[in-house]
User: Fold these one by one.
Assistant:
Number 1:
Amino acid sequence: MRVELKRPAWIEIDFKALEKNYNFIRSRIDKKTKIAAVVKANAYGHGAAKIAPKLSQLGVEYFCVSSPDEGIELRRAGIKKPILVLAEVLETQYSEIVKGDLTQAAASLETISALDKLGAKAKKKVKVHLVVDTGMGRIGFFPDQLNEAYQLAKKLKNIKIDGIFSHLARADEKDKTYSYQQLQKFNSALDNIRESGFKLPLIHIGNSAAIIDLKESFLDLVRPGIILYGLLPSKNLNNEAALTPILSFKTRVVQLRQLSAGSAIGYGSTYKTENKEKLAVLPIGYKDGYPRLLSNQGEVLINGQRAPIRGRVCMGQTIVSVDHIKNVEVGDEVVLIGKQGEKEISAAEIAEICGTINYEIVCNLSERLEKIYV
Ligand SMILES: *Cc1c(COP(=O)(O)O)cnc(C)c1O
């Protein structure tokens, strides 16, 4: 595909693959369970303003973000469905919750009563989902505090308790013992509310790993993030998942050079040619979110073959060896993440080299890279 770009470095997003991943999730969960698509962090670097409307059109019922400003961005993109802010917020962010008609994760009585006051001022009911900390140790009421928090929040005139949720810390591991303990704590905390004679609001706990491996987590909603984008939450899952990565990160060869034997390449001269070597210069670097940890470690695809990185990844340029690849020309397409012919470089492969997870690799891709949605 040839498109006019300001700079020969871009991200391609495949909407067909997004639809496949969405259909996979639907086929996996129970009929009664709704999907709350997690599009925080600019849809894990994939562009929330484009991804969310597409998912809404496909039938996603709910959206999750990590801060009110992300919620406002979705409203601007035309999202009319409920948007849940998953993280704790400061007072300075409250007004956006009301302005955007967002639903706030409520993890403390202080937040709830502050939102109630704000609702009173705006003559609106502020929607909240109570968070329960069943073992994530991040935010939320402890299971034995939930009933009291629920009763108190219930009395507030300008608060609507729309849901109660918890988050799994280890659903991506083979051994699900910890996840079952979390589920059990969640359920017994909910039972306390039921026993007080209340009908429960929307309850949810499942993330991507749980959708693949833990059917007990299919409650009113599930909250898939990474699998929407076609990436696996870990390689330690028990079940297969038919997913297709929706993102490719591409650039073009901007220059070809021949260096003689014994030449040093890049900052710190960390690579020296043994023989004469043909190299290609790429106009991307760590400023684009292409990790510097790939220096002398990573590979890219050119003409359907792997080309190893030589020397250190620079801020805006990277050098790869094309000594073994025939017919490389200036302007040739280079795949940094994604497929070319039979070969593929996954975000997981890059993450492995960098000692991190695929989540971080895609999230860190620069927002300045142009995105093409096909
Ligand atoms: C990020 C997040 C998710 C989605 O996690 P994935 O592993 O990407 O599916 C779900 N729930 C909460 C509370 C989160 O913070």
Number 2:
Amino acid sequence: MIAEEIHRITQALPAGVRLVAVSKYHPAEAIREAYAAGQRVFGESHAQELQAKHTGLSDLEGLEWHFIGHLQTNKVKYIAPYVHLVHAVDSHRLLAEIDKQAKKVGRVIPCLLQLHVAEEETKFGFTPDEARDYLEAGAWRQLSGVRIAGVMCMATNTDDTARIRSDFRRARCFFEEARRDFFPADDHFRELSMGMTDDWHIAIDEGSTLIRIGTQIFGQRQY
Ligand SMILES: *Cc1c(COP(=O)(O)O)cnc(C)c1O
């Protein structure tokens, strides 16, 4: 089942788009099954759970752990030694903490800015205007332990595919604009993380480079 879904998805991916298998709330054995099917990139959204899985699966070579959820500053230190990409940076305070913890362990951690483009009210994420102001202000340029590698977003939770498409399109526009204005000579700014189980086909249409899929691969979350 898990292997089948992974193959089904990866076969549908255009060149340049990668799958993040979202394994949160699923046991380590499910990750082993996905790994055996060739999957290497996994997404988790709780620091303690990621920590436990990182330890329990340390025998698997070439695993890439992505932190996809809201990250609390006091949890950064636990994942800084090995996290491959932090998807949802929503404040300078968080980026500065990742920078600090990255330097402690001699790393540069790639991070994505979380964009708020959905209709729902949420306290997480920069609106495109806020993100532009933040990049413009430039404090992030002083942080040598992190690298802004792109943006991530979630679309409105709705059946209205036109709305979903327009959310993704706004994120894509911001991504292109930011690349042009703030990262013109920087190959590292290249990731547009968007698309989940119910909307990843639309996300790919709209230029996603990283899709984050949980339920379609692993089924309903277990605990
Ligand atoms: C849980 C989660 C996903 C995966 O969602 P599914 O609908 O199960 O594919 C993707 N992105 C984020 C940020 C998540 O928290």
